[in-house]
Write a structure and sequence with these properties.
Layout: E1 10-11, E2 21-22, E3 32-33, E4 43-44, E5 54-55, E6 65-66, E7 76-77, E8 87-88, E9 98-100, E10 109-110, E11 120-122
Parallel strand pairs: 1-3, 2-4, 3-5, 4-6, 5-7, 6-8, 7-9, 8-10, 9-11
């Protein structure tokens, strides 16, 4: 839980197997999250992740919920397997332009107020 991690530009780790929650007020300068294995992340709940441009992970099988206030600059989510995501409940995701994933088999609910700029869903 940190107020500001403003200069982190990349998180590239082999295993973050015991992270259960990422809840930070401001992570404005993270540009990429590219990890091999994040099997135990269960929730990502952040106020601002404005500058994340891409989330490209091999396996995020245990993410159960993504509930964020503002993710305005996410442009692409390209993952091999997101098979256990059960809910995506966010207020604005106005700049997401593409969802390109191999498997999104277990998404049970997508309840989002605004997704005006989604241009393609290819799964």
């Amino acid at each position: 839980m940190d107020q500001s991690l403003s200069h982190i530009t990349a998180i590239t780790n082999q295993q973050l197997s015991h992270i259960t929650a990422i809840t930070d007020q401001s992570l404005p300068h993270i540009t990429a999250v590219t990890n091999q294995s994040m099997p135990h992340i269960s929730a990502i709940t952040n106020q601002q992740l404005h500058y994340i441009a891409a989330i490209t992970n091999q396996s995020l099988p245990h993410i159960a919920a993504i509930t964020n206030q503002s993710l305005p600059h996410i442009t692409a989510i390209t993952d091999q397997a997101l098979s256990h995501i059960t809910a995506i409940t966010n207020q604005p995701l106005s700049h997401i332009t593409a969802f390109t994933n191999q498997e999104l088999q277990h998404i049970a609910a997508i309840t989002i107020q605004q997704l005006p700029h989604i241009t393609s869903v290819t799964n």
